[in-house]
Specification:
Two copies of one chain form a homodimer.
Chain A (H helix, E strand, L loop, with lengths): L30 H19 L6 H7 L7 H4 L3 H25 L7 H17 L5 H7 L6 H16 L2 H9 L7 H13 L1 H4 L8 H5 L3 H12 L5
Chain B binds a DNA duplex (16 and 16 nucleotides) through helix 3.
DNA sequence: CCTACCGATCGGTAGG
DNA sequence: CCTACCGATCGGTAGG
C-alpha cells in the first residue's frame, strides 16, 4: 500500500532546470506586480463601494488571492487606501507637469489654464481614473501620517494653478479672488466624477455626450470673461 | 415574609389621575419625537463617519437608546439613511420655494439666481446642514425605491434653476450652455461642504473667513459676466 | 502567499 | 423601547 501520492515524488525523467538558475525567471510575476495589482483592484472597489463598504476579502478575490494574503503586502486596509491615494496623486502631479512642459514658452495664462483643466478632467475621468476620486471621496478614512504625505503632493498640484488664476484675475478675466476661485473651480471639476458618463459606441446618445475636450471648453467659457 | 415589593402595590393615598384621561399627557414625548431624534442623530453621524462607517449602535447611543431599539422605528439601517435624505431634500425644496416666493415680482434673473445660490449655501453650510451633504456623498448606499422618491424632489429642486440659467445664457451673462452650466455650478457649490469652515468667535482668522453672503457674491462674480 | 483560525463587531430579531 | 441573543462577517495573525 502506498500512502504517498506519486506526484509528490520527483519523476526521474522530468527535465531539470539549468543549474545555477535562480528561482525566478523573467516572466514569473514578482512581488512588485502583485502589490500593484492589489492597489489597482482596491482603487476600483473603493471607488465603486467606498472604503468602509469594501472588505479586504473583496480585494483579495479581485486579484485572485486568499483572504489573508493582502496583509503580506500591506500592514492594514488603511495602508492600502493610503497607497491608492498616494499613487493617484503622484500620477496626477506627474501628468500635470508633463502637460505644462509641452506648452510653448510664451503661451498666455488662459491657454495654460486650459491645459490644467484638460489634464484634470483626464485625471478624474480618463482611463485608470479611480485613484483620484477615491482620494477625493474617502479622505476621512486615511490615517493622519499618510494624509500629510498626500497633502504635500496636493499642495504642489494646486500650486501650479495659482499663478495662472492670479494673472487672469489681474487682467479681469477671472471674476473672483484667486483663492476662492480655485476652490470653486476645483469643485466644479471634481464634481464631474459624480455625473460624467464617457461617450461609448456611436449611438445618438453617445454622440450627444460631451468629450473631455468639449467639457474643457465649456468650463473655461463658464469661468472666464472675454478680454479683448 | 414578603416577596412582593411594596412599591409595586398601589399606595392608597397616591392621587389618582382624572378619570377618562388617556395614557399620554401633553408633555410626554411621543413616538414621533424619538423617530425624529434618530433621524437627526443619524444625519450627524453619517456625515461625520459615512454610512458604512456608522453602526446602528452608534446611532442608538447618540440618542440614548439600546442597540436594538432603532429597529422599532426603522426597518433597517438603509431605511434610516433614506429617511435622512428624504427629510433633507424636503426641507431644501421647501426653503428654496419660500426664498423665491419672497422675491419681488419683477426681479431680474441675476437676482433670482442670487437667491437660489444663497439658499443653497444655507442648505449646505447653515444650521442643521448635515442632511444634504449626506445625500450628496452617500447616494450609492440608498436603495433604489427610496432613491427614486428622493430623485423626484431633486428634479423639482433643480427645475427652479433652469429658467434663470436659460435667461442668463440668452442675455450673454452665462458663458456656458445651461445644462452643463447647472452641473458645474452645483459642483462648485456642493464642494464647499468639503472645505467650508463657518466663522466663529471674533479672532482674526474668523473675520478672514467668508460668510455665506460673501460666498454667494463671489460665486456669482465667478460664474456670471457683466451685461450692462 | 495559503491554511486555519481568532476575537470583535455588526445588523437584525424574538419576546416581553 | 429593553433584554438577550443569533448568525454572519470583518480585519487581522501565526505558522508554515
Amino acid at each position: 500500500m502506498s500512502l504517498a501520492d506519486p506526484e509528490l515524488l520527483p519523476a526521474a525523467d522530468v527535465p531539470r532546470r539549468p543549474r545555477g538558475r535562480p528561482r525566478k525567471t523573467a516572466d514569473e510575476r514578482d512581488d512588485g506586480n502583485r502589490r500593484q495589482e492589489l492597489i489597482n483592484g482596491a482603487a476600483r472597489l473603493f471607488r465603486q463601494q467606498g472604503f468602509a463598504g469594501t472588505t479586504t476579502r473583496d480585494i483579495a478575490a479581485a486579484v485572485g488571492m486568499r483572504s489573508g494574503s493582502p496583509f503580506y503586502h500591506f500592514e492594514s486596509k488603511e495602508a492600502l487606501l493610503g497607497a491608492v491615494m498616494l499613487e493617484g496623486m503622484r500620477g496626477a502631479l506627474q501628468r500635470q507637469q508633463a502637460a505644462l512642459a509641452l506648452l510653448p514658452a510664451k503661451v498666455c495664462a488662459r491657454e495654460r489654464l486650459r491645459a490644467l483643466v484638460r489634464n484634470h478632467f483626464d485625471v478624474l475621468l480618463g482611463p485608470d481614473s479611480d485613484f483620484i476620486p477615491v482620494m477625493l471621496y474617502e479622505w476621512r478614512s486615511v490615517n493622519p501620517a499618510q494624509r500629510s504625505e498626500i497633502n504635500r503632493l496636493k499642495d504642489r498640484y494646486e500650486a501650479d494653478w495659482v499663478p495662472e488664476l492670479q494673472a487672469l484675475h489681474a487682467q479681469g478675466a477671472l471674476g473672483s479672488e484667486p483663492v476662492l476661485a480655485r476652490l470653486m473651480i476645483f469643485g466644479a471639476l471634481n464634481w464631474s466624477a459624480q455625473w460624467y458618463v464617457p461617450p461609448s459606441g456611436r449611438s445618438a446618445k453617445a454622440r450627444a455626450r460631451a468629450s473631455l475636450d468639449e467639457l474643457t471648453t465649456s468650463a473655461l467659457q463658464l469661468f472666464l470673461k472675454e478680454t479683448t
